[in-house]
Amino acid sequence: EKPRSAVRVNTVELTGDSPEQKAEMLVSNLIRLFKRFGKPDFMLIEQPLRAIPAKGQANSMIIGNQLVAASVAVARCFGATWTTVPSVTWRNAVFGFCRRKNLHEMLMASDVGRERLTEKNRIMTRKAASKKGIRVDVSDLGPATEAQLKEEQAFWTTEWKRHARETCDRMRITTQNADEAEAALIAIAALKSQHFRMMEAQKNAKAA
Fold first, then answer.
1. What stretch of H or E contains 23?
2. Degrees (nearest 5) of the Cα angle 194, 196, 198?
3. Helical (H) or strand (E) element with 52
4. pLDDT 10s digits, 59-77
5. Which helix H or strand E contains 151, and what residues bound it?
6. pTM of the model
């Protein structure tokens, strides 16, 4: 019933040298929040990676899965309803698209986006030339194609987060960083999730 601008987000800093210590810190913060505000009506948690990406990132995958497990454990202890959602699902629910192809098309449609793609192309070209010990003129290069960016995971992550921040700005949702922006949009996507709709239908059926 409230406007999307009513969404409030905050960042929890997880300190610690190991995934277990970070999970412990998350549990402490979640318990504190639940005790202060009560258990949430519904928790939608972004699903972590289930397999190690081609270029590694094993540590990130391990940490992500342990943090989600910790969140689920706290939710269960407090009797909160929860489910997980893949990033492609919540992005499609909020943005209307979830594929790199669509994101690339969006970037190509604006001068600012084309410039970022062009600069990325220059960086990749210089890097490739440097490995061969040659110098190249990159002044005439155009925007990088989607195919050229196939292995550039960091670039896509940055652009998805940038789009999340810009989307929150349009919705007048106050965020301090891209992570908070994505959290706010996941909360909005929760309202469209099948799990939430089923929960609401059961609640209405009981009230009838």
1. helix 19-37
2. 70
3. none
4. 788 889 999 999 999 999 9
5. none
6. 0.86
